[in-house]
Structure formats: structure tokens, C-alpha cells
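HUMAN: Quick job: go over this next protein and say how the chain folds.
***
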Amino acid sequence: MTAIGEMKRARIAFVSLDGVWHHSFALFEDGGPVPSGDSQKEKVGLDHLAMQTESREAVDEWAEKLIANGITVKGPLTWGPDIGGAKESSGSYTIYFHDPNGICFEIFAEPMTVEEYREKSAEAEVQTANSR
């Protein structure tokens, strides 16, 4: 975390993933905590935010850092429709965790390329058409 501050109506946090740039992403709070503590269980306009990192090893390092700081981590998982992901899933290597307000975050690596995804989608369409 590079900096945490207050704006007129909300808090803000700047997070550097590489320790070089001031921030890799920024979080702007708007409103209070998710009542259930889990944005994936309660519809509040956001299911989760996904952020890519460079490798599976980096995902594992993030999981270790989060756990060491007392944060519950789900995963790692490799998402695809075969394990409950959307048919549009990328096959990425993923972890999930929640911020103190209950917003879910995903850190992932190694998704399919756009070309791989298009080929997989075309194959699935052919299989669906052939099974009719």
C-alpha cells in the first residue's frame, strides 16, 4: 500500500504491485461496507475486481503475503467452465480475497490468449451443434 487518504465522500487507497510506481491500481470507496461482508454473495453493483500478475509463482506469492497478513484466500484455482466458471472463462490461475468492506478481489496469471480463446469457443460451438 503506497498511501491511504480521505476524500470528501470516501476513502482512497493507492496500491503499488511492483514497489516502483506510486500505484498499479487505486481503490476509491463509495458508501459503507457490504452488509454480508462478501460482494459475491450480495448484489451491490460489483461482484469482484480482477488484476493480472506476471506468473503463477507471483499469484502464489500474493497468496502467501495475504495469508501472512491475516487475510483469507480462496484458491489457487484454474478457472474454466468444467469447474464452475463461465463459458467465457480464460483458464487463468487465480486467487480471491476480500477487502475489509467485503469487496472481492481476484489476482490471476496465465490466461489464454485471445486467439486460444477464440479457437476454444469455436470448438465448443461445433460440439454443441453436433450434439443436437
Notes: The beta strands are 3-6, 11-15, 25-28, 48-52, 74-78, 93-98, 104-109. The longest strand covers residues 93-98. The domain at 32-130 is CATH 3.10.180.10 (2,3-Dihydroxybiphenyl 1,2-Dioxygenase; domain 1).
